[in-house]
Every structure is written in C-alpha cells, then in structure tokens.
Amino acid sequence: FRAWHRGMREMDWIMGRFADATIERLAAAELRDFEHLMEVPDPEVLAWITGEAEVPPTYDTALFRLL
Fold first, then answer.
1. Which of 34, 35, 53, 42 minimizes the C-alpha distance to 12?
2. Are the C-beta atoms of 38 and 63 separated by less than 8 Å?
3. Residues whose CB is less than 8 angstroms from the CB of residue 61 and which lie 6 or more positions away in sequence, other chains included
4. pLDDT tens string 2-58
5. CA dist., res. 12 & res. 6, Å (int)
6. How far apart are CA 8 and CA 22, in angstroms?
7. In 3D, which of 30, 28, 34 has the Cα closest to residue 16?
8. Which of 13, 16, 25, 53 is the most buried (most CB within 10 A)?
9. For residue 2, what pLDDT is reported?
10. Distance from C-alpha of 44 to C-alpha of 35, rounded to nearest angstrom
11. Domain extents for the chain?
C-alpha cells in the first residue's frame, strides 16, 4: 500500500509498480532494503533514479538497481 501512496505521482508509479511486480519474490534482506528505501523522501529517491544525484552507498543495493 505504501508503495502506491508516497506523495509524488512519479514515485507512486515507480515504487508501486515495482512492489506489485516483485514483492512476493524478494528475499528477507531485499524486503528490508525496500522498507529502508521507502523511508527516504520522494525527491531524493527520484533524483537517484534519474541520475540527478549520486546514490548514497547505504542505498546502492542490488534491490535499488532493480528499480
């Protein structure tokens, strides 16, 4: 639910679609990474995804690269 109701329409689409397509197949560690990523404000995550800002090492995970 949270993946589809983030605040920015763009992030709703990105995170919501990602969650719908992959959430059931994620390992426990990947689910933790996803939950951790969900705590970051939308503008920051969008900047990382679009390449406008560098992804901090804490969030530069295999899961993030799937987005």
1. 42
2. no
3. 30, 33
4. 677 777 788 888 999 999 999 999 999 999 999 999 999 999 999 999 999 999 999
5. 6
6. 21
7. 34
8. 16
9. 67
10. 15
11. 2-66
Gap between the Cα atoms of 17 and 53, Å rounded: 22
Cα angle at 17 between 11 and 21, to 5 degrees? 150
Sign for the pseudo-dihedral over CA of 30, 31, 35, 38: positive
Burial 1-39 (b: 16+ CB within 10 A, else e): eebeebeeeebeebbbebbeeeeeeeeeebeebbeebee
Encoded amino acid at 33, one letter: D
Nearest to 63 by CA among 18, 24, 12: 18
